[in-house]
Amino acid sequence: MFNPKKIEDVAKQLSENLPSGLKQFAGEFEERSKQILQNQLMKLDFVSREEFEVQQHVLLKTREKLEALQAQVNELEKKLAEQA
């Protein structure tokens, strides 16, 4: 779901921007940053791109069926009005 490369890039950017006195901890900081970012992102309520596309397709099919049913209802209402 999440691109591990992007998480690593963010963690690396964070460690590179540490003040010079903290550079000795950069490796550990980068690893912990990666872990924290991954944990926090996992808590978010995301769906995968694949699931999104499946649901988008389902919605499109449902919309098409609804339009077809609406056309049938309109036709039946028209016939009833003609008979009355």
Characterize this entry briefly.
The protein has three helices and no strands. It is mainly α and 84 residues long. α1 packs across α2.
Description:
There is one protein chain. By secondary structure, the protein is mainly α. The protein folds into two domains: 1-46, no CATH class; 47-84. The protein contains three helices and no strands. The chain has helices at 4-16, 26-43, 49-83. Helix 1 crosses helix 2 (26-43). The radius of gyration is 27 Å and the shape is rod-shaped. The N and C termini lie far apart (59 Å). The mean pLDDT is 85.
- Number of contiguous helices: 3
Task: Provide the domain count.
Answer: 2
Uncertain stretches? none
Q: Level of helix content?
A: over 70%
Instruction: Compute the separation of the termini in Å.
Output: 59 Å
Arithmetic mean of pLDDT = 85
Strand content: under 5%
Give the biggest beta sheet: none
The Rg value, from CA coordinates, equals: 27 Å
User: What global shape is seen?
Assistant: rod-shaped
Strand/helix succession: HHH
**Number of strand segments:** 0
**Class derived from helix and strand content:** mainly alpha
Describe the SSE topology.
Layout: H1 4-16, H2 26-43, H3 49-83
Helix pairs in contact: 1-2
Keywords:
84 residues, mainly alpha, 2 domains, 3 helices, rod-shaped
